[in-house]
What we know:
Oligomer: single chain
Number of strands: 18
Strand content: 25-35%
Number of helices: 13
Structural class: alpha+beta
Radius of gyration: 25 Å
Amino acid sequence: MQKFDTVIIGGGASGLMAAVRASSLGQKVLILEKNSGLGEKILLAGRGRCNFTNGEEDLNIFLSKYGDNGKFLEQAFKKFSPSDVIKFFEREGVKTVKERGKRIFPTEGGGQRILNVLLKLCKKNGVWIFRETPVQSLKVKNSRIDYLITSNDEIHADKYIIATGGLSFPDTGSTGDGYKFAMQAGHKIIKTYPALVPVKTRETWVKLAKGCDLRNVRINVLLDGEKIDERFGEMEFTNFGLSGPIIMDLSSKIPDWHGEIIFELDLKPTLSNEILTNRIKREIKKYSGQRKFGGLMRLLVPAKMLPVVLELSDVPHDKPIEYISDEEILSTVELLKSIKFHINGLWSYKNALVTRGGVDLNEIDPATMRSKLCENLYIAGEALDLNGPSGGFNLQMCWSTGYTAGSAD
């Protein structure tokens, strides 16, 4: 039997931050990690570059990114804000850069640089780390965890923190263990879904543009024919549907939409129909006798998008442009402004950046992350029913909740 002040289940972003904070306060801390490595999702974040927070300075705007549950994070953010996170890593020598969408990255080293800082501080503060040590169960007695059982030991502590993550990227070890442990302590789990995940479409022709990245486009969301949402930014095509930042942000809302969901792509959102019509007419006049319709479209859409446009157009790709009628110009404008995709599902947790759902926030004290049902249990990070859009918001949630849980007596 071993005894610690604080035992943290999970060595990801929230668990490592909780360990750094608790150990800095003089606590004897143990991290239990079932993998051989720690912080695997940190290494994956931002495609390895690690968009570790966001530079949005207005707290209300920041909290709104998490939807109705954002208010829960207010106290944790005041304890350890996005600017505090930036200062935390900069004090440890990490130089940062702000990019499009106020995303904050290390200037070099990516996720490995961020992870190295956390591991260095854990070592400096004497944090114990047991790798390849899965927790089997929590033993709860009189609304308090008495001890926990690992694959090879019984461990006692004054305080326990669940920081196991959710169900996204299960290959990194996020397989829902935290939900099981929370339920052992009496907690309710809000139904989970993959979030920040590519979507599937009914249209199979999307594969014609596989790998095509589009910038500065708009997606309008139609539910049973009525517009209910929109996004402007970047997206891409896959073999089975759509992906990219604006698509993945919208994916988190799909479980709430009941009915026919259509994503309407506007390839030229900054141009009105009239301006786009006049541009096409100018190109026809300029290249009359020199190009066919397919060649005209090469002037208007990315090369990888061309097969889709030609597939959907009513105008034959080999029709000389001088013979294109006004009606065909009109239909071409309508196509470029409105390509429709019928959404018929989400990809799996294996492809999701985060999990929507998790431990019911009504059962957690937002000032401390302490369970209201089990007096020495704390829950932080993605195991909670919290998720935000891409752009550094989900790692920030992990840093703030982990720091708050690690701060508690």
